[in-house]
Write a structure and sequence with these properties.
Helices cover 79% and strands 3% of the residues. It is mainly α and 287 residues long. The protein has one domain (27-286). A two-stranded antiparallel sheet has the order 1-2. A hairpin with a 3-residue loop joins strand 1 and strand 2 (20-23). The longest helix is centred in the last third of the chain and has 39 residues, at 237-275. It is globular, with a radius of gyration of 21 Å. Residues 1-9 have low confidence and may be disordered.
């Protein structure tokens, strides 16, 4: 169930021949980042089709909705009707835009569950195929969505008072999805489990989560902005909408996969530190 060797003599390792040895002992931030991209690379064939298929419809609708809004505004601008230009965007365009945001928000915890399940299996030495990614996680979808809504409500309530309480809630519940899919918990039990695992090392977990979020934001911006600017300068509205949809799909899938993989590794790290998961796995191997 592990690759063995690599990280130091006598130190337990996880992973497989596809990932290479991964640390199954208390991990520093560098270990988590390194393991994140090694796991994603090893599981790209299993995760990419699922994530891209989920993200593409939302991104395609968003891209063409933006194109239609810009075309409508430009048409009224050419006619010199500034009042119509100002009033053209709301209604239909805004409704579609809000529906896309809502759809992505609802799918994010579902995708997180797919990624967490796949990455957890890979960390423990098993590789999933695309069909297994969905099949093994479909029973947790309701719990993932409900827990996500509860966490966002808690973040919103805490954020009203200050940014820091909102970040604190985010950190305390960052392991909810891994707990639900790996341990088969319900939404509230998953949130309690996350709180229990994070609380002993709250500040390191918060710092790792914020660093990961910043890194994902920077990389996603690089992936999206440069091609969009180039295409926007040389292509028409239709071609730009197509490119926007493709780039948006890739960017969304990238953000989903990195965030969920880091959460899964933090989950394992906390269990190794406070519950002796590494010793349990070593005992199972010996058994």
């Amino acid at each position: 169930m592990g690759a063995g060797g690599g990280y130091g003599p006598g130190r337990p390792t996880a992973g497989s021949s596809r990932t290479g040895p991964l640390p199954m002992y208390p991990m520093a931030v560098g270990d988590i980042l390194d393991a994140t991209f090694r796991l994603l690379r090893a599981n790209a064939k299993a995760l990419a089709p699922v994530l891209l298929l989920i993200a593409f419809p939302f991104e395609a609708i968003a891209a063409y909705n933006t194109r239609n809004a810009q075309s409508l505004n430009q048409a009224f601008a050419n006619l010199g009707n500034l009042q119509q230009q100002q009033n053209a965007t709301p209604s239909s365009v805004l409704i579609v835009g809000y529906l896309v945001i809502l759809g992505i928000a609802l799918m994010t915890p579902v995708v997180a569950g797919f990624v967490c399940r796949t990455i957890a299996a890979s960390y423990l030495g098993e590789q999933y195929r695309p069909g297994q990614v969905v099949k093994t996680s479909v029973g947790t979808i309701a719990a993932l969505i409900i827990s996500s809504l509860l966490v966002h409500l808690a973040e919103l309530g805490a954020g009203i008072f200050c940014i820091l309480p909102g970040l604190a809630i985010m950190a305390l519940f960052v392991l909810t999805a891994p707990a639900i899919v790996i341990e088969g918990l319900g939404p509230v039990a998953g949130m309690r489990r996350s709180w229990k695992l994070v609380r002993p090392r709250f500040w390191p977990v918060l710092g790792t989560a914020l660093l990961g979020g910043l890194m994902v934001l920077i990389m996603a911006t690089i992936i999206a902005v440069v091609p969009e600017q180039i295409v926007g300068a040389i292509a028409g509205d239709h071609a730009k909408a197509v490119v926007d949809a493709i780039i948006g799909t890739i960017t969304e899938a990238f953000q989903w996969s990195v965030a969920a993989t880091m959460a899964t590794l933090i989950y394992f790290n906390q269990r190794i530190r406070f519950e002796g998961l590494d010793l349990q796995v070593m005992a199972a191997r010996l058994g």
